[in-house]
Specification:
The complex is a heterodimer of chains A (258) and B (282). Chain A is mainly α and 258 residues long. Chain A has 2 domains: 43 residues; 199 residues, MetI-like (MetI-like fold, Orthogonal Bundle), CATH 1.10.3720. In chain A, α7 packs across α9 and α8 packs antiparallel against α9. The longest helix of chain A has 34 residues. Chain A is globular and about 75 Å long. The relative contact order of chain A is 0.14. Chain B contains 12 helices and no strands. Chain B is 77% helix and 0% strand. Chain B has one domain: Orthogonal Bundle (MetI-like fold), CATH 1.10.3720. Chain B is mainly alpha-helical. Chain B is globular and about 75 Å long. In chain B, α2 packs across α12, α3 packs across α7 and α3 packs across α9. Classes of the chains: A mainly alpha (258), B mainly alpha (282). Chains A and B meet through α1, α3, α5, α6 and α7 of A and α1, α3, α4, α5 and α7 of B.
């Protein structure tokens, strides 16, 4: 059983490596000292400051509503596309599926700068519309892949049976296809929200300075110098995004363990 | 497929793919175009076609050094991720079962889906001079200073932390698929663990290892935020060079050429690994 113990100890070390800095950050956001001085002295001062900081609050609000808009658009378009890919066989289908990979595989630095150039060229420029355009494009492949993974287990014959019984396409979608695909769609929507809410690189190139999203604001703030308020808002972000992913994991059942 | 069905399928697919075209494929083409210009074609500015940006990007020794530095950084980060991640994936896939495994697997993957910028920031708090690690080291061994901030080690630690879950995920998937009876057969024939690992497990897990390596290498070679925040002055990489062209220097044509060279490097790696990637995905 020495092997079992060693294995568990190793896993524990990896988990410490993954979580220790996050926990340190969370603890320090509740430390009274501005310079993270020890001994630790409990204070909610930085959170109170945070909720009076207009700049951070407005960036946070912008990040949330952009993520909601992005999740809505990406989930709608992505689900439509995924169901069409599942329902029909046609020449060029494989090419369409392959085209989903460049937005995921190409480093965001390249995609982001390319978007900046193109949006400037066609007159959209920088700003919130550009950010939404970019985020939806990054989120779409995730939605399509998640919904496709869910529909893979769904027999197309059911769809055809409903049609041969005279159901209209809209009724089939509402009563047969969508209920079955629902967990995949919910997971896809959560992924899309997370892709947008956590997105830094593409927002950094596309957001208007002074009118930015939360991650861009945090980046600029860190480069100017540390402030415990940034620490507090970062802690909130990490808690929100982890909670979202636990939800998404429950719906998507990724990892193939079930 | 009837004509009406075909039309409906097209109607369902078109919005998503038009969006991808507008926001990804056209911008990449626009960047190719820009990288061949002498100046940005906005307003009344004069511009013409040139290969000078590529000539500059490829012959300027500073740029070449930075590209090499980024490739080297990506190599070390990938290597550390594989060394740390493979045993972890083995424990998860072959030594744990049921709900424990499920819960621990989720715990390992979770940070990867959370905000990467914030996680890098959390390392800055831990690593900086007079930070948590420094004070902890000082209190255990008085007089010892441990300031890793603004060093290459800090960048590597932060990036390994960011991308380790990728490797664990891909290795986990390929290790889980290995048939237990194969390992038992090898053992009953008298093979010892090092031999089983080398001759049986590693070859079978290779697609997962390669997929993980590519998923780490590609984003790291284009990273700029992590080196900036954790590397400070030593943190100039090819990524920060590109960032500067767009954010600070406003030399977009040169930036576009540098981005395209990076894209070429990425595509070569993806193409070389694509057989393994396809196997890992299946």
């Amino acid at each position: 059983m020495i092997r079992q113990t060693l294995a568990r100890a190793y896993l524990a070390l990896i988990l410490i490596f993954l979580y220790a800095p996050i926990i340190v950050m969370a603890v320090m956001s509740l430390n009274a000292s501005q310079f993270y001085a020890l001994p630790f002295e409990f204070s909610t001062r930085w959170y109170e400051r945070l909720f009076t900081n207009r700049e951070i609050l407005s960036a946070a609000w912008r990040s949330v509503w952009i993520a909601l808009v992005v999740a809505t658009i990406a989930t709608t378009l992505g689900t439509m596309a995924a169901l069409a890919l599942w329902r029909h066989d046609f020449p060029g289908k494989r090419i369409l599926q392959t085209l989903l990979f460049p937005p995921i595989a190409i480093p965001w630095l390249i995609t982001g700068t390319a978007m900046l150039i193109f949006f400037f060229g066609i007159g959209i420029g920088r700003g919130t519309p550009a950010v939404i355009l970019g985020h939806v494009a990054l989120a779409l492949p995730y939605v399509i892949v998640t919904v496709t993974a869910r529909t893979a287990s769904f027999d197309r014959a059911l769809d055809e049976a409903a049609r041969s019984l005279g159901a209209r396409p809209f009724t089939i979608a509402r009563r047969v296809t969508l209920p079955h695909a629902a967990p995949g769609i919910v997971a896809g929507a959560l992924f899309a929200f997370a892709v947008s809410f956590d997105q830094f690189v593409v927002s950094y190139f596309l957001a208007q300075p002074g009118d930015t999203t939360l991650p861009v604001l945090i980046y600029t703030a860190i480069r100017k110098g540390f402030t415990p308020e940034i620490n507090a808002v970062s802690t909130i972000i990490i808690v929100v995004s982890m909670a979202l992913m636990i939800l998404a994991a429950r719906y998507a059942r990724f990892g193939g363990t079930k | 497929m009837t004509g009406a069905e075909r039309l409906r399928a097209l109607g369902h697919l078109a919005p998503a793919y038009l969006w991808l075209t507008l926001a990804v494929f056209l911008p990449l083409s626009a960047m190719a175009f820009f990288s061949l210009l002498t100046d940005v074609p906005f307003g009344t500015r004069e511009w013409s076609f040139t290969f000078r940006n590529y000539a500059d990007a490829l012959t300027n020794p500073t740029y070449a050094t930075l590209l090499w530095k980024s490739v080297r950084l990506a190599f070390w980060v990938t290597l550390w991720c594989l060394i740390l991640g493979f045993p972890c994936a083995w424990v998860l896939a072959r030594m744990l079962q049921g709900r424990t495994r499920e819960a621990l697997f989720l715990l390992v993957i979770l940070p990867f889906w959370s905000n990467s910028l914030v996680r890098i920031f959390s390392w800055a708090i831990v690593l900086r001079g007079n930070g948590v690690l420094d004070q902890a080291a000082g209190s255990i061994l008085p007089g010892v200073r441990l300031n890793l901030m603004f060093s290459e080690s800090a960048i590597i630690i932060g990036l390994v932390h960011s991308y380790l879950p990728y490797v664990i995920l891909t290795c986990y998937l390929s290790l889980q698929a290995i048939d237990e009876t194969l390992i038992e057969a090898a053992r009953s024939l008298g093979a010892r663990w090092p031999r089983i690992l080398w001759r049986l497990v590693l070859p079978l897990a290779l697609p997962g290892l390669i997929a993980g390596a590519v998923l780490v290498f590609v984003p790291v070679v284009g990273s700029f935020m992590e080196p900036r925040l954790l590397g400070g002055r030593v943190g100039t990489t090819y990524g920060t060079l590109i960032e500067d062209q767009f954010i600070a220097v406003f030399n977009w044509p040169l930036g576009a050429a540098l981005s395209f060279i990076l894209l070429a490097v990425v595509l070569v790696i993806l193409a070389a690994a694509s057989p393994a990637l396809r196997k890992a995905a299946a």
